[in-house]
Design goal:
Length: 341
Amino acid sequence: MAKKDIDWNNLGFGYVKTDKRYVSNFKDGAWDDGALIDDDMITISECACVLQYAQTVFEGLKAYTTEDGRVVCFRPDLNASRLADSASRLEMPVFPEDRFVDAIAKVVEANIDYVPPYGSGATLYIRPYMFGSDAIIGVKPANEYQFRVFTTPVGPYFKGGAKPITIRVSDFDRAAPHGTGHIKAGLNYAMSLHAIVDAHQKGFDENVYLDAASRTKIEETGGANLIFITKDGKFVTPKSNSILPSITRRSLEVVAKDYLGMEVEEREVYLDEVKDFAECGLCGTAAVISPVGKIVDHGKEICFPSGMEQMGPKTKELYDTLTGIQMGRIEAPEGWIKVIK
Ligand SMILES: *Cc1c(COP(=O)(O)O)cnc(C)c1O
C-alpha cells in the first residue's frame, strides 16, 4: 500500500479524481450486478430525465483512518436507508441497502491510497447518488437509472480551529410542509444557491430557514441541522417533517444522552426563544459541528454567550466525543463503525 503523494494538510474541499468508482445500472426493472470502473465520465441522452426534471438523489459520508490505523466509515447503513427514502419519494427504484453498504466498502477499498492518514484532519469524502438516465420528455419518472459512488479526498473542514460563524434568517423558504425537505435531493440544493450567494455577498456564512407555513420556527440551514444548548445544559434540536434527518444530529442526540448524560429534547423551536439559548451549532457530515456565534434576523443580532472566538463548552464536549468515537479513541455504540480495512 502506497499512499498517494498528496499534501493532506493543505487539501481543500474540492473534487479530486480518484482511481475507481462503483456503477450499477437499472434497466428493464432490475439493477445489474454493478462493478468498479475507471471512467469518470458519464454519457447519457441529452433528454435524460435527470437533465430535464432533476430526478436525482444523493448521499454524503466519509472514510477515514482511525488512531489504530484501520480505515472505517461511520454508520453507512443509515445513508443506505435514507437514500432509499429519497429515491422512493422521487419515484426511483430503491438500490438495495445491503448492496449500498457493500458498494461503499468496495469503492473505498479500491481507492484506499487516497484515504488520508490519521491526524491529518483530512478524510475521503464518499458521494453515492442515483439519477434517471433515459430520455424522458413528457413529465414522468425515468425507466432507466444509474447508481454511482465516487470518492474524493477532502481537507480538514476547519483550518486552524473551529471559529464560530454568523448565519442570517433567510427570507426564502427551503421546504414546504408536505414537500421534499426531508429527502436528500439535488432539487433542494438548486433552489438554495441564490440564497447562499446572496448571504455571502452580504457577509453571512449561511442561511437559517424558518418553517414555510408560519415563518416562526427554526428549521435548518441549506445543508446542516441545528442544535442548541440551553443555559441549564439541555440539548435541544428542532423537530419538523420538512428537515433532512441528519445522521450527525441523530448521532449527537445519542452522544448527548448516553455519553454526556444530557437531557435531549427534539421539539419545535421558535425563532423568538433562540435568544435564550447558551450555545448553537450546525451539524452535518462535512464539519461534524460548526459553532454558531451569531444569528442575524433582519438587522437584529442574536449573540450566543459562547461568543465569536471558540466553540461553546457543551458543543465542544459533543464535538470531541463524537469525533473521538469516529476516530476510534472512544468506544462506539454497537454498529456505528464499519471497518473497511
Ligand atoms: C446532508 C444534509 C444534512 C446533514 O446530514 P448528515 O447525515 O449529518 O451529513 C443536513 N441538512 C441537509 C439539508 C442535508 O442535505
